[in-house]
Design goal:
Blueprint lengths: L5 H13 L24 E7 L9 E8 L2 E9 L6 E6 L2 E9 L2 E2 L4 E2 L4 E9 L5 E5 L1 H15 L4 H20 L21 H24 L5 H14 L5 H13 L2 H9 L10 H12 L6 E5 L4 E5 L21 E8 L9 E6 L3 E5 L6 E11 L8 E7 L1
Parallel strand pairs: 1-9
Antiparallel strand pairs: 1-4, 2-3, 2-5, 5-8, 6-7, 10-11, 11-14, 12-13, 12-15, 15-16
Helix pairs in contact: 2-3, 2-5, 4-6, 4-8
Length: about 400
């Protein structure tokens, strides 16, 4: 289990103190907004930027979106190491862009790289507003702009874009119900927010951090920006997550520790109630488990290869046929290839309903072959692959 060491904690406190020497009239994490506008058409826009919290002096720019063009109408900075900012802005369709380093809630360190996050808000005249800029608002941002330019209302674009984001991420998470728009999702249970929605937002933030940190071990140049750019392109092009990214996110889930994430965030968001991220981890994890007890058997009499999975008996036992069942609530994806990386499958099936598969050797050729299988749930979640190899005579 990951824990903050005493030394790391004191270093963290020292960094917070060193960055907090000035006094600001900051927007708090509970949604409160100071100021009521300057008497003109401008009014307050306050918020917080989280991937976890952005650090003090991160840049905040507000751009007014008008068709295919945009222009900066206000600029500010994050006011403390809590991600908070506040500006006076004109009404209209606004893109709030935050650029800076952030606190990584999975390992209690500050990022070395600068990350850019965005959120799209439809600011009413004279109306104060409070928003949260996070990874989810970034993933939906560009598609929302595109849909609005196609004639959709802000509400229609927001709903459609957020649905596509959640559909993409469902390959890892499955269907996690949420109620609020992404810009209303915090990582702490502040006033006016929904704990379940906050937990989903915090889970995605933690999942992305864990995936990037682990992937950097093998690919030092891999970054949070790389991951976010990859997923943004998938959203715009309406494509599924690529296999390498999907695997890194699935494996990252297994390394997340809710108690550690909560402890790490409590050290910086002092006094806040951290969202119950453990609830989401527990909901996601069972569906990622690969098919169990995968076995294969070469039936020389029938000149075929058998595969059995999710049953207590292996394929060499005649009694295995009594364990063949139809899948309920999910189906199977299966592949056979003569390459271990499954780059050119000889067989590739989706929506397979049974926990048994048999194929004639004549269609496979002779030599070493590789078989893998995963579960595809009705809510979009995909399990990890179970894999084995076999030799065709």
């Amino acid at each position: 289990m990951k824990k903050i060491t005493q030394l790391a904690f004191f270093l963290l406190v020292a960094l917070l103190l060193s960055c907090g020497g000035e006094s600001y009239n900051a927007a708090s994490n509970d949604g409160g907004i100071s100021g009521t506008g300057n008497g003109s058409s401008k009014s307050s826009l306050a918020g917080s930027a989280y991937k976890g919290p952005f650090i003090q002096d991160s840049e905040v720019n507000v751009l007014k979106i008008e068709g295919d063009s945009s222009s900066i109408i206000a600029s500010s900075q994050v006011q403390a190491n809590l991600g908070d900012f506040i500006l006076e802005v004109e009404p209209g369709l606004l893109s709030v862009a935050v650029s800076g380093r952030f606190y990584d809630e999975t390992n209690a360190t500050y990022s070395e790289e600068t990350v850019n996050l965005k959120a799209l808000v439809n600011k009413d005249p004279e109306q104060q507003a409070n928003i949260f800029v996070n990874a989810l608002t970034l993933l939906s941002h560009d598609l929302m702009v595109e849909l609005i330019n196609q004639g959709n209302s802000y509400e229609q674009a927001s709903s459609a874009a957020e649905t596509r984001v959640k559909t993409l991420l469902a390959a890892v998470t499955g269907d996690i119900p949420t109620n609020q728009p992404f810009i209303n999702m915090n990582i702490a249970n502040s006033t006016g927010t929904t704990p379940g929605d906050n937990a989903y937002s915090l889970y995605i933030s933690s999942l992305f951090s864990e995936a990037v940190n682990e992937r950097r071990v093998e690919e030092p140049q891999y970054s949070m920006s790389t991951l976010l750019s990859t997923l943004r392109a998938d959203i715009l092009n309406d494509k599924p997550i690529d296999d390498a990214t999907l695997l890194s996110l699935q494996e990252a889930n297994g390394r997340l520790d809710a108690a550690s994430i909560q402890q790490n965030l409590e050290a910086v968001l002092i006094g806040e109630t951290i969202a119950p991220v453990g609830d989401v981890i527990e909901a996601v994890t069972p569906g990622l488990v690969p098919p169990s007890n995968l076995t294969t058997f070469t039936d020389t009499k029938a000149v075929s290869q058998r595969f059995c999975f999710d049953m207590p008996l292996d394929c060499s036992s005649p009694e295995h046929k009594a364990e063949i069942v139809n899948a309920q609530g999910f189906s199977y994806d299966l592949q056979i290839d003569d390459n271990a990386d499954f780059s050119s499958p000889i067989v590739s099936l989706q929506d397979w309903q049974r926990n048994y598969y048999e194929i004639e050797h004549a269609s496979l050729g002779s030599g070493t072959r590789y078989f893998r299988i995963r579960k595809s749930y009705d809510d979009g979640q995909l399990s990890l692959w179970a894999q084995t190899d076999f030799v065709v005579p």
